[in-house]
Task: inverse folding
């Protein structure tokens, strides 16, 4: 079967890989209907994160179950499923508390490379959720979004305690930030300030429910958020970048007692303890427990209440994955969908 | 009137100071019944925090109202009152959200020096809470504790979301940590692990409701907490020290999705973003909004449901404040009460 492999920064190739098989009785193998390229895939692509040799890529996927192991009970061959990037048993104490990405038995699905024709998913019962039936083709991008970027934006909005009456600021205008806007809107936020300086992303933010756009960033961005909130700062801030600047922008844009939900994978971030202490904010985030939200998100998508698939502004055949990486890297695409 | 003034690290003197008067119509002047020395007073005493010249000391106080400004309506001369270390209007949006220490009009009461015979308290209506009557002498220490250490330990327990069914770990065995134990117990925590290697503090922790004592600290302490919690970490961790080691001990002792409530004033703390991200914990803390809790805490003390005054293991006349600082510094006393 064909699959994308990263050999070095800037070097992604689609090549023949071994056909995955059931290894554990709790496994499933799925035929990938759609996969995509994640902002976090760009860290090794840009050489910021070290690669350990040639690495199969991709951790976002939807597809049709080909085969399940003998112990799998909740999904069966032929089901259309959405999964998340960490396999989880969904039964341990941590999972039951809603933190499936920290499951005591978690396994990174991405290690198997989801940008491929077939994918082995461990702990299938705890990881995959079947849709109510075979989806219309135009629902597939949204279901794929649920697998990571929507689930992550949603978690950030929940972690930031967005909701009715709240003013929410969103730092980061990538797919996750934009879907954080969508999530905040769905969760009933009163005012949603998207921080973006790109016209196409601003437009999508407004479609997803943003009420204000702030183009400034860093301290100027913070000042603007303060200006829009009677000097207090936002109640809820979603951080979806993962740099020192974006984290500080998020913390400083939040009022005392407010909530920062941060989901940008932290790179070279160091939080000054004293400033954090005196800020009085709540901080919560990390790798999003997408599995917690999948049933709800699939339902919203199935009912066409939300259309998160709009973040995909470039669709390519899997064979052209390298072009997809280039487009994401150069920010000519927000999010690239790959069709095996 | 007499009051304690710090001239330099290790140099605290009780001397004549100007008698405070009503400056703003929202002020009150109180006759201090009891004040105390705070762990945070030790930072400048030890030369770790810079002093700006001779500094009146103390920010924890109870006393009897001598005089109020023309706009004060909720307290009157003769009332016995408990206040908090930041004066707050208790009406702004931040105060109404329960974050009075971040009030848009806040003023540090400590700037006036509470370790003295008389004290001017700004924003008296929003800062002071009157007790139901004149307290018995043996209630005074507990009411004084409410003014800071109890309120701070209570906030930490609330920020750490302690409660029924929760396992709580407490990092720090000073007065705040010990009262964090008391708070967690009152809030219904199932298991409370006090981290302490001092017999007298362990004893008090057990009296306040600790179910386990862990003597190890740092990584060994974390390992012990994990061992006591099926490898997962505590649901809730109270951090009441403020050093890099104590913060990391708190974060690492918390399970994914769990809550760290941190109230130790951060000194030279820098939190590694990546580790924090992958920890999946909630982080909340800062200067405790004691005012939020005062009515409830005074009620509990008045009904003798709690006895936080036990943390005072040394009572001295105000004139001997210097001896009190020495005792706190050398850890021969947990907490020193000063009687003007």
Result:
């Amino acid at each position: 079967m064909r699959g994308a492999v990263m050999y070095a920064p800037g070097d992604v190739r689609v090549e023949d890989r071994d056909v995955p098989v059931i290894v554990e009785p709790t496994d499933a193998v799925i035929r990938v209907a759609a996969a995509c390229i994640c902002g976090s895939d760009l860290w090794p692509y840009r050489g910021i994160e070290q690669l350990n040799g040639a690495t199969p890529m991709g951790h976002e996927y939807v597809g049709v179950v080909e085969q399940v192991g003998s112990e799998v009970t909740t999904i069966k061959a032929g089901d259309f499923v959405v999964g998340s990037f960490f396999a989880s048993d969904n039964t341990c104490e941590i999972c039951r508390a809603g933190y499936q990405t920290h499951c005591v038995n978690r396994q990174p699905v991405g290690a198997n490379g989801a940008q491929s024709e077939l994918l082995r998913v461990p702990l299938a019962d705890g990881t995959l959720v079947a849709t109510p039936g075979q989806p219309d083709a135009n629902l597939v991008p949204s279901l794929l979004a649920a697998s990571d970027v929507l689930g992550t934006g949603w978690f950030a909005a929940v972690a930031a305690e967005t909701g009715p009456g709240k003013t929410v600021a969103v730092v980061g205008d990538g797919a996750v930030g934009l879907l954080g806007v969508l999530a905040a809107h769905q969760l009933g936020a009163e005012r949603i300030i998207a921080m973006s300086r790109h016209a196409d992303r601003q437009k999508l933010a407004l479609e997803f429910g943003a009420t204000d756009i702030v183009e400034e960033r860093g301290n100027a961005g913070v000042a603007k958020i303060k200006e829009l909130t009677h000097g207090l700062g936002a109640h809820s801030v979603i951080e979806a970048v993962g740099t020192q600047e974006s984290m500080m922008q998020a913390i400083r844009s939040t009022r005392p007692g407010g909530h920062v939900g941060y989901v940008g994978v932290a790179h070279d971030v160091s939080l000054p303890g004293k400033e954090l202490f005196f800020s009085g904010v709540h901080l919560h985030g990390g790798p999003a427990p997408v599995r917690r939200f999948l049933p709800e998100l699939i339902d919203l998508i199935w009912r066409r209440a939300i259309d998160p698939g709009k973040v995909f502004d470039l669709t390519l055949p899997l064979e052209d994955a390298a072009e997809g990486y280039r487009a994401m890297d150069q920010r000519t695409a927000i999010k690239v969908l790959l069709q095996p």
